[in-house]
Amino acid sequence: MKNEYKVLIVEDLKSWIREMKNELSKAVPNAQIEVAYCQEEARQKLANSHYHFTSLDQNMPTHPESFVSVNVGAGFTVDLQDKYPCLGLGIYTAYSEDENYALSVGRAAGRTIPVWRKSAGSGDPSGISVPKWAGNVKEWMATKYLPFCFNQAATHLPCHLAETAGHINGVVGKDNKNDAQIFARQSFHFWTLVLQLSSAQAMAIARSAGISFMVPSDHKYEALENMLTDLLPVLQSKSSVSLWTPYIGDDGKQLINGSQAIRLLRNQHSHETPLEDYRVQNKEILPNLQKIMDAAIFWANHPLLTDIRPCGGNRYKAKVIKGTGYPWTEQEFQMDAADLNPDHVYLKYSSPYSDTVKLIDLWPFVSLEFNKDLNRPCLFLISHRWKNNWYRVSMNNGHPEIWKPSPDALQVLE
Fold this sequence. Notes:
The protein has helices at 14-27, 39-48, 72-83, 99-108, 130-143, 145-156, 159-169, 177-208, 221-237, 245-248, 253-268, 275-301, 407-413, and strands at 5-10, 31-36, 53-56, 60-61, 68-69, 88-93, 115-117, 304-310, 315-320, 330-334, 346-350, 357-361, 366-371, 376-386, 389-394, 400-403.
């Protein structure tokens, strides 16, 4: 199975666009390629979809019909790497004098952004032709994308997911039995956490939208997949998860298919597996792990928040549940007045056409409790209900435990 990629080309010259699309489709046949002719068009496409890589021109118009502006690409990159931390970025420019500035943009964010200078023709041997650019994008996607994602995820995903991503990042691509074992084990753990958080989030969104659903009756991962198979098409038909859809696929099929494939691989897994069998197994894990990572990136771009409080006018502050460090960083945003519980966990989302943020309360399906052993809060997720008992899992270990909901929580759950 090959990895499937979605690439956005941002370039104002149609002649370049045609050649870039043609060469990239030959170099990466499994890539879905889209284009934007100015910064604003690119901004809207990025807000409404999920791309794995974006190639930016350096000098381009900011809006349709506007004149070309200098350094738009590098300046735009500053915004994109903050808003979309797991988005691969590259600059393909004819202006080599801007290369150092573009490189410094990436270094300031602790990452390397490739800068390729466009070739001026056969008399310009140091320039990068379009076929060579396409080959460079292909190589970056094939060898660097997933390690880059796990490196970024270790900083930008919710705490326990970030920790597991960091473990995977340390061993991805290494070819010895110990690291292969760690990669397989941590990949399976990452999958379970994404599946469990996706399920709890889906139930919370359904509850907020007034959509009825059945809580799973056991903690098996197949039960969560079945619930998502039934629930996500209903949510998507009511536009309740429009911003989530690009990350999990229509009707959630990308997430569910990836989950089912990894679950089957996990069932075949043994600690006595020879190295060669690990190589085969991990090769099969990778494309499905990318589907799981696509689902996880949603929380990097739309972070979970807690301790939300007003800070004047219609401005609010919140703690962002991300990374392995604690205390968490804070974020300030604009939002219409709302009655919020500072102890609840909220999903943040916003329209690409407005700076105003909207929130979905995930409680009691997702909740926070302070763990004295870890000296930080931990996320807990509704797991299932069996014989009138409610169960939840800690994202710290993924193990189900009996949970006695408070009267307020029980009123929501019933």
